[in-house]
Amino acid sequence: MADKSLVSKLCISVIAVGILVASAVAETKYSIPGADSAGGASAAAEIQYKEVEAPEAANPNNVVTAEQWAEIYPEICASYEANGENNYRVSYLDEDQDPYLVSIYEGFGFAKDYTSAIAHNYTLADVAETERPHPLANCLTCKTADFTALVNTMGKDAYSLNFEDVMPDMTENVGCYSCHENNAGNKGELTITHDYTLESVGDAGIEPATLVCGQCHIEYYFAPENKATTAPYDSIEAMSPDAILAYYDEMGFSDWTQESTGTGLLKAQHPELETFLGEGSVHASMGLTCASCHMEKTVSEDGVAYTSHSLVSPLASEAILETCASCHQDTDLKAKVEEIQTAVTTREKEIGNDLAAMKEKLAEAVASGAYSEDELNALRDLHRKAQWYFDFEYVENSEGAHNSKLSNSCLDKAADYIAQANALFK
Predict the structure, then answer these.
(1) Which residues are paired to 5 by β-bridges?
(2) How far apart are the first and last CA of the chain?
(3) DSSP classification of residue 54
(4) Taking the C-alpha atoms of 163, 167, 172 and 173 in order, what is their torsion angle to the nearest 10 degrees?
(5) What is the pLDDT of residues 134-176, one digit of tens each?
(6) CB distance 47 to 24 below 8 Å
(7) How far is 232 from 194, CA to CA, in rounded Å?
(8) Which residue, 7, 36, 138, 161, is most buried by CB atoms nearer than 10 A?
């Protein structure tokens, strides 16, 4: 059995996307552990940021492509391309993974197709090949720089375009434009390119090297009135799963109504931003960013110091681990993280199975005719809440490593709502 925490949901590397540099200026010096004369640099190498003009976009969607940038930043672009080695995909619906998800997501696309994430190099292939339906172009929101550029040119009307009409013109995966737009990245310049992110928390003081990642690794919904990708909050404080659920409840929003239970359910997306910045996050409170832990400073064989865009788990990078040791000292971090993730994953499977069993009881109750509508609605309310808190934790890509306090809090609440529902069955 492939352990989910060791496939892609452990894949903490997924939280960061192409950042040229992490909140740095030209004068900044980084200590690069492991760099020596054989690598062409001393142990303290200076990243010299180029002062260049951005080339004219060769892409018909007005996107300066990664291929163009590779002529100016060969080391950075090569490191990003190296992410393509992550192309191993596992279905979470398989019998040896989490088959209870088929019941939990009954009536929604994730009950048909739900696989582990692979590298950002394959985002267009992902959305083209999925068995989940995608009638509108809003499904492309975080899959291609081309669609981001289209929204930034056309406005929110782009979200409601027909998927089949737009997809043939999409050629660039998640890439340079996603985090830098068409800017040259001089002095580490980053650009928040997704409109809904700026509208929700644009002036909330979140570090750019976190927000450029978080603009895609985020909870969102498609607004009923215009199908635009929308974040369900307007501040860091309102990012909590409690506040987001209240937001959806107030507007009467559901992603789908399950036929067998009659419950209006929510499908969380991938709330790494909300989890990393949420209550209990030690690393966020210290001022660390996504890039701090997932993009190592390195040096090429030619002696060029740069920020690697090979998006790694910090456990796979000696350079990042050496930085972690300044706080964690002699702690065996790999063992510690494995302990956290194993505990969270074990609880996740137990509660997921309990949720599926409770959902099946509710479906039986609906079919039995032995319950009043008020009784069924009370059960449906508990079902919706249990599903939300379980899913918020399940789809977050770190299995507790980003914020174990919040992960366990979500699982606690899911378990409590399941228990309350089970107590109401006749």
Answers:
(1) none
(2) 37
(3) P
(4) 50
(5) 999 999 999 999 999 999 999 999 999 999 999 999 999 999 9
(6) yes
(7) 15
(8) 138
- Counting Cα atoms < 13 Å in the Cβ hemisphere of 357 gives 12
Indicate the residue type of 247.
Y
Burial 121-130 (b: 16+ CB within 10 A, else e): bbbbebbeeb
Average pLDDT, the chain: 88
* Residue 378 neighbours by CB under 8 Å, 6+ apart: 424
Positive or negative, the Cα torsion across 53, 54, 58, 61? negative
pLDDT of residue 45: 60
- What per-residue confidence (pLDDT) applies to 195? 95
Classify burial at 285, counting beta carbons within 10 Å of its beta carbon; exposed 0-12, middle 13-18, buried 19 or more: exposed
**Count of residues for the chain?**
426
pLDDT of residue 322: 85
Alpha-carbon span 297 to 308, nearest angstrom = 6
Question: Which residues make Cβ contacts (< 8 Å) with residue 199, sequence separation at least 6?
Answer: 230, 231, 234
Under-50 pLDDT residues of the chain: 1-3, 5-44
Q: In whole angstroms, give the CA distance from residue 227 to residue 352.
A: 30
Give the CA distances from residue 116 to residues 3, 89, 110, 415, in Å, rounded to whole numbers and listed in that order.
11, 5, 12, 25
Which residues partner with 31 through β-bridges? 44
Q: What is the pTM of this model?
A: 0.89
DSSP at 303? S
The single-letter code of the amino acid at 165 is D
Judge whether 401 and 11 are in contact, CB under 8 Å.
no
Report the C-alpha gap between 94 and 74 in whole angstroms. Answer: 40
Which uninterrupted H or E stretch holds 320?
helix 318-328
Q: What is the DSSP code string of 207-248?
A: -HHHHHHHTTSS--EE-TTT--EE-S-SSSGGGSHHHHHHHH
Any residues with CB less than 8 A from the CB of 335 and at least 6 apart, and which?
none
Distance CA 413, CA 268 (A): 15
Burial class (CB in 10 A: 0-12, 13-18, 19+), 137: buried
